[in-house]
Amino acid sequence: MPLPPLFRALTLALVSVALAGAALAQGTQVQFGDGQDTSGQPVEVTSDQLEFDQQDGTALFTGSVRIVQGALRLTAERVDVSYGDNEAGETEVRRVEATGNVVLVNGEDAAEGERAVYTLADGMVVMTGDVLLTRPDSAITGERLTVNVDDATGVMEGRVSVVFTPEEGDGE
Predict the structure, then answer these.
(1) Contacts of 105 (CB under 8 A, 6+ apart)
(2) Of 149, 152, 151, 156, nearest to 15 (Cα)?
(3) Distance of CA 3 to CAs 15, 44, 52, 98, 114, Å?
(4) pTM exceeds 0.90 for this model
(5) Are 117 and 138 in contact (CB under 8 A)?
(6) Are 96 and 18 in contact (CB under 8 A)?
(7) 81: Cα separation from own chain's centroid
(8) How many CA within 13 A on the CB side of residue 91?
(9) Across the chain, where does the E strand assignment appear?
(10) 15 — phi, psi (to 5°)?
């Protein structure tokens, strides 16, 4: 199996992350990004090293990993990808785990943490470890950010702190 299907599958995973949005369950409601579909845009992955095992269905990017697709950017020290064939025989990503100074940027919004795991089967992205979510008008911190990419909902948990910046003219 050639390597390009892995990158096609990784593209699908990253696009799903880009579509993450508003609120879920208990905690502080969050929104991330503008929801623009970047699925047709190319994906560029750079790292100091890539190890992959076609038989195990794994790929490991290490050392200043940077993944870019349109307005979506992910950086981390390490990105583990698990993939395999779906029922149609096409290669698909099943799980993506980024660790070490993880930063996910979508347009003007950014989320930082120590670890982010995206499980495609349930459409959930979970970022942990002193999470900071910044938007043009606010900053939210907590221990765990969970985003459901299928229904565009999310929640920040764990001693949440929110700082809002009023727009000019709001105090007049």
Answers:
(1) 71, 72, 73, 74, 111
(2) 149
(3) 19, 14, 9, 20, 28
(4) no
(5) no
(6) no
(7) 13
(8) 20
(9) 28-29, 44-46, 49-53, 58-69, 72-85, 91-106, 109-119, 124-135, 138-148, 153-157, 161-164
(10) -60, -40
Question: Are residues 100 and 45 in contact, defined by beta-carbon separation less than 8 angstroms?
Answer: no
Q: What are the pLDDT digits (tens) for 128-153?
A: 999 999 888 889 999 999 877 666 56
Query: Which residues, in sequence order, are CB contacts of 151 under 8 Å at separation 6+?
Result: 123
- Judge whether 113 and 97 are in contact, CB under 8 Å: no
pLDDT in tens, 83-96: 888 889 888 888 88
Measured distance CA(12)–CA(6) in Å, rounded: 10
Decide: helix, strand or coil at residue 103: strand
Nearest one of 115, 104, 108, 113 to 33, comparing CA atoms: 108
